Amino acid sequence: MKPGRVIVVSNRVGLPSDGKARAGGLEVVMRSFIKRNRGIWFGWSGQIAQRGSENVRAVERGGVTYITTDLNRADYQEYYNGFANRMLWPIMHYRLDLVEFSNRDMTGYLRVNEKFAEILHRFIEPDDIIWVQDYHLMPLAKALRDRGHMNRIGFFLHIPFPPPEVLETVPKHEQSIYPLSHYDLVGFQTEGDAANFGKYLTQQFGLTSRDGRSFNVNGRTVRAGAFPVGVETAQFERLARRSARIDEIIQVQTSIADRPMIIGVDRLDYSKGLDLRMRAYEHFLEAHPHWRGKVTYLQITPRSRSEIKEYADMEQRVSETVGRVNGHYGEASWTPIRYVNRAYTRTLLAGLYRFSRVCLVTPLRDGMNLVAKEYVAAQDPENPGALVLSQFAGAAAECRSALLVNPYDQEAVAAAIDQALSMPLEERKERHRDMIAALTANDIKGWGERFLAALVREPQSGLRLIQQAGF
Fold first, then answer.
1. Are residues 327 and 118 in contact, defined by beta-carbon separation less than 8 angstroms?
2. CA-to-CA distance for 72 and 45, rounded, in angstroms?
3. Nearest CA-CA partner of 277 in 371, 414, 183
4. Which of 131, 165, 318, 330 is the most exposed place for a label (fewest CB within 10 A)?
5. Nearest-CA neighbor of 312 among 364, 365, 268?
6. Active-site residue flag, 290
7. Strands across the sheet containing 337-340
8. Is residue 62 part of a domain?
9. pLDDT average, residue stretch 251-267
């Protein structure tokens, strides 16, 4: 089957000239993918409009058509701040203790998905392929099917997908999560996530499967698969090599007085385990006093969702730990932790990764974590640094030669930091060779095409609407 246009749908659409620095390369690659497929990118503009105002806008830039709509204040609070980020986000990251459910928020979540479907309905042509991104828009395919669209529709979840025992704690999950069965192909970061989706469909709804990845829903086939997101491996290494020579990077190197540097780069989010990581570093300084005054830890943590109480509380905890560590162990000539709450450009991050001896990536749960992969890609193969990586990050499946740790075990993380700093050059080079080979084999440049090929080759026979399922 030869597809028509590709329509990518995401919660937020950022125009290329909006002036914001972006650390990740995924958006750049997605834009290139859409351009190659004569595509459209649709989503929320990021603007809050007056109630009832859509403000649908279509612009073309760089060969890509962007279609955006505003959200009103109720939509933003209920769909985005409410159900998406106070219900789905913690559930998907196994944090049942942080879940806040309200019927009003779920109604808002479904309402915005219906709104997106109604706007898309005006633009979709019969041969278009639709690719929906992430947890904000799980019910979108059902809303499109309800409007008669028989197009191939795929979905990719960028965050973890927990087992059914966790998902069934979501009230009325058959209205918010089960609609994933209306897609033709549902993609995940890892095989474990795809398997959890299969268990959810079979255990909770009794769907049959011939192979654990294809499921029969009232006569139509829904497929699940793993499509791990990668990085532009070779390009990022070249960027890091060039960036290591720019003034800002040289200034950082000079300021740490030739001490080896540990780096961490994370959004301020409870899934990243920052408070536990800071305490593990504190334990490292206590258990390995010979490193005091001889290593610098730079933690770059842009704030996110600061209007949500859990995030504000976490920011306070992390800041208090940083202050305690620096106050207890710091000296006039040495600060143990440099803690920065602003975003850095991708160029500067590449340069910082390049000269950092160790990178700490210790999320409590992560769909993939591209920081880990970018750090590996940025290294000088003749003198690479060492990666300390959570076993609960999706990247651990490919970065098996990293120092894999349980982020809840502070003593183990502290020991891994010491091992990484002390690791002989030959061992660092061997571990790096293994990881760079895995990253090169799964370069992000082919990610969109791999997903699209799988979506298109799904057999058409038996395709029909599934609203008869009763959900």
1. no
2. 11
3. 414
4. 165
5. 268
6. no
7. 337-340, 296-300, 261-265, 358-361, 386-390, 403-405
8. yes
9. 95
pLDDT-derived band at 466 (thresholds 50, 70, 90) equals very low
- 241 and 179 in one domain? no
Residue 1 lies in a domain: no
Residues 239 and 377 in one domain: yes
What are 113-144's pLDDT values in tens digits?
999 999 999 999 999 999 999 999 999 999 99
* Burial degree of 1 (CB within 10 A; 0-12, 13-18, 19+): exposed
Domain co-membership, 184 together with 122: yes
CA distances from 1 to 50, 128, 132, 312, 463 (A): 43, 12, 20, 49, 15
Give residue for tokens 């769907």.
207
Could you list the residue range(s) of the whole structural domain that residue 361 is in?
233-442
Number of compact structural domains in the chain: 2
Share of the chain above pLDDT 90, in %: 80
Question: Among the options 149, 158, 182, 432, which is catalytic?
Answer: 158
Q: Which residue type does 438 have?
A: A
Structure tokens at 467: 């609203």
For residues 266-273, average pLDDT: 92
**Partner residues linked to 224 by β-bridges:** 186
Is 121 considered catalytic here? Answer: no
Phi, psi angles (nearest 5°) of residue 209: -145, 140
Catalytic pick from 136, 173, 366, 432? 366
- pLDDT tens for residues 51-70? 667 789 999 988 899 999 99
What DSSP element (H or E) covers 271? Answer: none
Residue 160 CA, distance from chain mean position: 9
- pLDDT tier at 25, thresholds 50, 70, 90: low
The alpha carbon dihedral of 247, 250, 255, 260 has a sign of: positive
Instruction: Read off the CATH number of the domain in which 182 is found.
Output: 3.40.50.2000
Same domain, 316 and 331: yes
| Separation between Cα atoms, residue 424 and residue 406, nearest integer Å | 23
- Encoding tokens for residue 207? 């769907």
Q: Are residues 284 and 155 in the same domain?
A: no
Residue type, 461: S
Residue 468 within a domain: no
Alpha-carbon gap, residue 324 to 327, rounded angstroms: 5
In a domain, 341, yes or no: yes
